[in-house]
Amino acid sequence: MAEIRVDPKKLTGPVELRVGDTLVLGLEENPTTGYRWQVSTDDQLTPSADRFIPAGDAAAGGGGVRTLKFAVVTGGAGQIKLQLRREWAVDAPQQSLLVTYRAK
Fold first, then answer.
1. Cβ atoms of residues 38 and 87 within 8 Å
2. β-bridge pairing 22-29 and 64-72
3. Mean pLDDT for back-to-back runs of 10 residues, the chain (104 residues)
4. I need a surface site. Which of 26, 45, 68, 88 has the fewest CB within 10 A?
5. SS3 76
6. What SS3 class is residue 33?
7. What domains can you pick out in the chain, each with its CATH number?
8. Are the C-beta atoms of 96 and 82 separated by less than 8 Å?
9. How many CB atoms lie under 10 A from the CB of residue 15?
10. 19 near 101, Cβ under 8 Å?
11. Cα–Cα distance, 99 to 39 (Å, whole number)
12. What contacts 64, CB < 8 A, 6 or more positions away?
């Protein structure tokens, strides 16, 4: 069982995982603007943590990093779809990311 840290912006292919691993994604975010990461994933992963950590030098209302953790519960291939958007907005997301994975 390992903790696999991934920067979704630097991915070039599927992330290789094993059942029992934890997938960790770190995403820049500034929730005071209303923009937050919205996540959709397949059944192989179960969300296990969602935490925002302000940047060390950020003033009140500044940005930081949203850390999302997913437990790998079954094998198979899948995707995590991430959209940085305002929950109430109907317009296109400010940013979209796709993380593909294979779990054994």
1. yes
2. antiparallel
3. 90 93 95 91 93 79 90 96 91 92 95
4. 88
5. strand
6. helix
7. 3-103 (2.60.40.2020)
8. yes
9. 17
10. no
11. 11
12. 28, 29, 30, 52, 53, 54, 55, 58
Q: Give residue 59's pLDDT.
A: 66
Residue with tokens 């059942």: 19
Structure tokens at 64: 């930081």
What are the strands, taking DSSP E only, across 20-87? 22-29, 35-41, 45-54, 64-72, 76-86
Exposure on the CB side of residue 61, measured as CA atoms within 13 A: 2
Q: Is residue 95 within a helix (H) or strand (E), and if so which, with residue range?
A: strand 95-103
Sequence-separated (6 or more) residues with CB below 8 Å from residue 13: 100
